[in-house]
Amino acid sequence: MLTRALAPLAAAGIGLAGALAATLSLHHAAVAAVDHVLEEKLAGAGAATAALLADVPPTAERLRDVMRANSLDGVYVVARDLRVIADASGPAGRRADLLRLDLGRVRKALAGQASAAPTYQLGELTVMTGYFPFRLADGGAAAVLILEAGQIFLSSRTVVNRGRTLGVLLSLLSALGLAVAAVRWSRSERERQETAVRAARGTALSRVAAMAAHEIRNPLGVIRGTIDLMRERSKAALSERDRHALEDIAGEVERLRRLTEDLVDLSADRPLMTGTTCLADLLAETARATEAMFPGISVRCDVDALPSLDVDAVRLRQVFANLLSNAAQAQREGEIVVRAIVTGDVVSVRVQDKGPGIPREIGERVFDLYFTAKSGGTGLGLAIARRLIERHGGTLMHVADEAPGTMFEVRLPLMSNRATSGGG
Question: Are 302 and 339 in contact (CB under 8 A)?
């Protein structure tokens, strides 16, 4: 499973490496091609200017014309003794700046060898220079024409560098997108497998539940009948202690009977026996039953004028009895509040207790089959309650807010949805 999850991420990494390698390789080739073109362009400008200066004396004005015409950053002429004869952007007669000059190329130029190539960096800017030999028209002495090309002349090289940056950025974005897609795919694949496992487990457990309910029902009926018969025959003979013992047994039998009903609901959706039901009365009855079962608990029902609903009253009472029972077990004593309001075509019922609450991270898991956070719980009640509400066309959810305790909300449509929810 881990290998399958990491495979898409590895593919994203390989794709990124390949894209970066291709981008950098193309950039290197493009820079080489652009440099070659620029060198040829600078060499052409230098050769043409050197030929011109062989016929006319070099002056600052003529050199400025050359600089403007070729978008250069500097043009000047030096003699064999490295004295500046003319400069497009500075005074003549001074010694040449040795930090700016390449003495080796000057000597080669004086020997008749012209050259044009990238020479030095100024920050991120590459400066290209050209050294071109010629003889002064007025005296025939050897001199060297020096051209300096900077940002404007090399603008095409800047465009190539921007292309490299854009290519790297696009590669990173593509890899990031692929990684996000891979993570999402991995997550959805994991969820799909977990869903499939839960479905298979649920099917098997539903079969076991149906068998268990079938096998338990008959013995429970016999036990309940025997208890009723003993009560009837031994009214006077039974002591107070024996009567309480029989009541305890009857209570446990009733608890097991309700458990078998839950198991039946789990194994198959029994048809809903719907009819017109007053929701306010149903909530009041369930509240009284809860108070009777939990003496330390009181239930306050704050309800609007609620309409009657077309629902299965028995199954709906089972839902609210489960919610109130859970609230009472969590709170142990004090007041539980049930609020119901009508909004549009939906009636909302909220059950709020003041118990320890449900951690936010497991808020939705409480509806998972067989998941329980309380000692002695079966993990059936809330799962079945949600299924029953959904079969009525509604929803049951845990409301995570900042209030103390736990809140569950049941939302039911005012119009019947039995035709689309699988009800009978």
Answer: yes
How many residues appear in the chain?
424
Topology annotation, domain 2-161: Beta-Lactamase (3.30.450)
Alpha-carbon Rg for the chain, nearest whole angstrom, is: 46
Every domain range in the chain assigned CATH 3.30.565.10: 272-421
What are 304's strand-pairing partners? none
In tens, the pLDDT along 136-150 reads: 877 778 999 999 887
Separation CA 19–CA 172 (nearest Å): 9
β-bridge mates for residue 341, sequence order: 348
Put simply, whether the predicted model's pTM sits higher than 0.90 gets the answer no
pLDDT, tens digit, for every residue of 172-211?
777 677 777 777 777 787 788 877 776 666 666 666 666 6
pLDDT reported for residue 153: 57
- Strands 125-135 and 142-149 come out as antiparallel
The topology (CATH level 3) of 272-421 is Heat Shock Protein 90 (3.30.565)
Numbered ranges of CATH 3.30.450.20 in the chain: 2-161
Q: Which residues contact 251 (CB under 8 A, 6 or more apart)?
A: none
Helix axis angle, 240-267 to 155-233, nearest 10°: 140
